[in-house]
Amino acid sequence: MLLVPCPYCGPRNSVDLRYGGESQPRPDPATATPEQWRGYLYRRDNPADWLRENWYCRSGCRRWFTVERNTATNEFRHPPMPGDKRGGKA
Amino acid sequence: MTMGRLGNAQPTEVIDRGAKLSFRWNGKRFGGFEGDTIASALAAAGEQVFSRSMKYHRPRGILTADYWDPNLLVQVGDDPNVRAGHRRLEAGMEVSAQNVWPSLRRDIKAANGLVGRFLTAGFYYKTFMRPARLWPAYERVLATFAPGGKIDLDTPHRYHDKRYMHPDVVVAGAGPAGIEAALAASADGARVLLVEHEHAVGGHLRYDSRDTAVAALAELRAALDASDVEVLTDSTVTGRYEDNWLGIVQRSHPVAVERLIKARAKTLVVAPGLIERPYVFAGNDRPGVITSTAARRLINLWGVKPGERAVVFTANADGDAAAADLDRAGVEIAAVIDGRQGHRVSSTQGSPRAVEAVVSGGNRIEADLLVVAAGWTAPTSLLNMAGDRPVYDPPAARFFAADPPGNVLATGGLAGDGTLDELRAHGAATGRLAAQRAAAVAHRLQALTARAQPVGGEEPPWAPDDRIPLGRDPHPELYRSDTHGMVDFSEDVGSKDLMAAAGEGYDSVELAKRYTTATMGPSQGKLETVNTVAAIAEARGETIAAVGTTVWRPPYAPLTLGALAGRGFEPVRVSSIQPWHEANGVHTILAGQWIRPDHYGDPAAEVRNVRSNVGLIDVTPLGKLDLRGPDVAKLLNLLYTNKWSKLPVGKVRYGMMCAEDGVVLDDGVTGRLGDEHYLMTTTSSGAGGVWEWVENWLQTERPDWRVHVTPVTTAYTSINVAGPKARELVSRVTDGVDLSPEAFAYMEVRTATVAGVAGCFMWRIGFTGELSFEIHVPAGCGLHVWEALMDAGDDLGVGPFGLEGQRIMRLEKGHFIVGQDTDGLTLGPSTGLGPLIKLDKDDFAGKPELAWAVGRPLPMIVAIQPDDPNIVPAEASQIVAGDTNQILGRITSSRMSPTLGRSICLGQVEPELAAGGTKLTVLLTTGERVGATVMDHHAHFDPTGERLRG
């Protein structure tokens, strides 16, 4: 089981968190076309590489945070920046 | 062969000859000593046949005399499939043989052996495939042929335990290398857990009676005792998962039957040693043919003489040591066949009590014991689970670790061979490396989570692997002799079967394995994997390295379902009113973690009472979020599809939430209690999810908004008072609020004192369609208020109603339930609440998708009435096109309505069927088709809502 570095609680088992998926900006709903919106909903870069992603510490501090994980090695890096939703491939 | 207990104590024996134990084997009384295994006690008593083989019911005796012995599965009391080569003998044990009928000695199914040439690979697949209709009959007969013990359904529940650990270093295997690794890591300051599969530490030193080995083991034990290493014996690391998350089963525990340990290790040292491999030749599964390790264990651990006259086939130093042990134990050595010189054992013949070995050249040697030392299997399971793909080395005739990840280190037999000193030195170097890397892992984890745990100092460097590699002893590649024999003793799969399977095209090891079931029995490849690969390689005319091996998966050793399930700790939630419910004949229903009143005996009567008098329902699990701050209205506008900016204080409003894909997520009412204070309710099942949803918006998308969210679901006991006499009842116990329809209208909220309890929130809404007051009472006073209402309403005919009554009434009113009448594809407009989707708002969750959906033809939720009022179609019944099977929708809710005296439904139908008056065909679960009609309104009853507004 993945060990996820919660910036507030410390390293935690991934079952203690909810995976928020690849971090990506929410398009402006006033101007987004249905195609753009569905790209946001369903399309993921899914690189075998470093990825910026969101986690929610549901059994701990109940904070969302963003980390970078190498999907090939499951290595995490960088002190997480809470609430940062810049995203996709890191 | 003739076995018996040696008269003189062996220097390494583990039995206490002063402590006699009595037990039963197949109903007959036997004796043994404390420290015996079931098998060693029986062997000492002269027993030779312990089981019958799975398919051919061939007699089987001791093969390896340890945990992996495939021939020693027995029933102990109500415990099936006990490994008699491992399980310690206890006084009074009732042990019996499995897979025998009518008895171990006279087994009728041994006739299978006579027809064995027909029971080839895939026999069952090929024979019982057709005709398919006969399969149930085949299955009944074949089930009696299935091996395994008997399960007793009346076995009492026994205590299983769980433990969580966070050691720095876990060492799997306590042979000399593993012990040295644990000691070295501990000396470097690491917290170390050493896990040993057998009952004591020492590995192969335990059954080596030479002075150097005895002295070394004593030294290692003393060092362990003096160290801080935590040692678990009779325990196995069953699995290695991401980031060294380890499953460990502890079989010997003072209190629990078994304990499952979940450990997060920073580094893992894999040191399971080697498992001796059987050799394939005709008659290699005859009782009396044993591995050299088995011979040494029997003599040195339990003082059992394994035979009178032995042939020793040896290809390595351990086989030579076995010959020496046999000689010392007084076994006559008829011949030593040296595999290193090119000599082979070809076959055995004779009755089960005599083994006649035929060696290469055709010489026959009379004996009652054939001891085989033909090579080793490297149990690389934990390395496989860490992603390593071990590599076959032909000169050493076994697999070795290839390139495991840096936090997993192999030592001992997986890493190579050498003198005892070299093995110990390699183990110690591995332990130091493990401790250094564990410190680096710890530092890295801290650095990643520095806010939680301040980190000091520089990150330690990732220690390079500068261990001096172990050498590899040359070993002849001995897999199969010039005859065919057994490969998988558990599954009765021979080399002939495997080569036939390869000939039929199943020539990849993964296919051949599944086709023949080789490696899939209780020994799980520990003894037979390499011989399986070798047989495939031989059939293909290729090398073992080219064929490759199967991937070992968890668990390394079996564990019981009880160990996995643990203590059976299942938390439940009840409301403060539960004692009253229980005292009044409640029938409960489990909803998520909540135990809720379903009804009190007659839900239809409860409905009639609510419709004519007044009823109380406990709706405490209703999700409740307390929202405070200047930006709550903006938040509500974002979460719900409708508008909230102008909701006045004292009013409540219904809202529907959709996810970003436009699918209905939840619904409920939210009331404005003060200028910057709101109470949101959610569905009972959605309470947790909506809270997370709200947090997501506030934390990630709108972090600048000032809103405090507090879940108060369990802080309030929620009671809905419903029925035409609800106002009369509530007025009798309420102070400080004018309850008249003019002063307190439908969809309004007040703060009231109810039955003397101040600070209750009361709002006029309800799911039943009746005049309703929903009261949220501080939870500590919930039972008191409920009882006060019951007392006060005695003359009004007040009674409780449960979830079932409420579900009937909401269906009469046509209110949909999210998750019951909607599913993961139901877009907002499909609910019929399109007017509540306000596309002129700047933004709200799911807006672009809903903007796309509004106005398009979508499946719709509609009210449906079967033409025959007595037919209640089962929920999930399909709505089809006439006599065809074209699906046009389905029934999502259905009940018999006590109020209308007819069946009523909600359903989802294709858009062209949504208009009132449309005729439908409903396919019942019986296969019958019945007519039904779409109604004009969702509400079957009181569509204008006069009753609830009253």
> Pairing-aware structural class of the strands and helices of chain B?
alpha+beta
Helix content of chain B: 10-25%
Q: Which fold does the CATH topology of chain A refer to?
A: Folate-binding fold
N→C terminal distance of chain B = 95 Å
Q: Terminal Cα separation of chain A, in Å?
A: 23 Å
Q: Quick check: average pLDDT of chain A? A: 86
Percentage of residues in helical conformation of chain A: 10-25%
Outline of chain B, from the CA principal axes? Answer: elongated
CATH architectural name of the largest domain in chain B: 2-Layer Sandwich
Query: Order of strands in the sheet with the most strands of chain B?
Result: 41-42-43-44-40-34-45
For the record, what is the CATH homologous superfamily label of the largest domain in chain B? Probable tRNA modification gtpase trme, domain 1
Number of discrete domains of chain B: 6
Describe, in plain words, how this protein is organized in 3D.
The complex is a heterodimer of chains A (90) and B (950). Chain A is mainly beta. Chain A has a single domain (3-89), classed as Folate-binding superfamily (Folate-binding fold), CATH 3.30.2270. In chain A, 10% of the residues lie in helices and 36% in strands. In chain A, the strands form 2 sheets. In chain A, strands 3, 4, 5, 6 and 7 form a 5-stranded antiparallel sheet that branches. Chain A has a two-stranded antiparallel ribbon with strand order 1-2. In chain A, strand 1 and strand 2 form a beta hairpin. The radius of gyration of chain A is 14 Å and the shape is globular. The two termini of chain A are 23 Å apart. Chain B has 950 residues and is of the alpha+beta class. Chain B has 6 domains: 4-107 and 278-373, 2Fe-2S iron-sulphur cluster binding domain, sarcosine oxidase, alpha subunit, N-terminal domain (Ubiquitin-like (UB roll)); 115-143, no CATH class; 160-274 and 381-448, FAD/NAD(P)-binding domain (3-Layer(bba) Sandwich), CATH 3.50.50.60; 479-562, Orthogonal Bundle (Arc Repressor Mutant, subunit A); 582-810, Probable tRNA modification gtpase trme, domain 1 (Gyrase A, domain 2); 857-950, Elongation Factor Tu (Ef-tu), domain 3, CATH 2.40.30.110. A 7-stranded mixed sheet of chain B has the order 41-42-43-44-40-34-45, sandwiched between helices. A 6-stranded antiparallel barrel of chain B has the order 46-49-48-47-50-51. In chain B, strand 14 and strand 15 form a beta hairpin. In chain B, helix 11 crosses helix 13. The longest helix of chain B has 29 residues, at 420-448. The model of chain B has no long low-confidence stretch (mean pLDDT 93). Classes of the chains: A mainly beta (90), B alpha+beta (950).
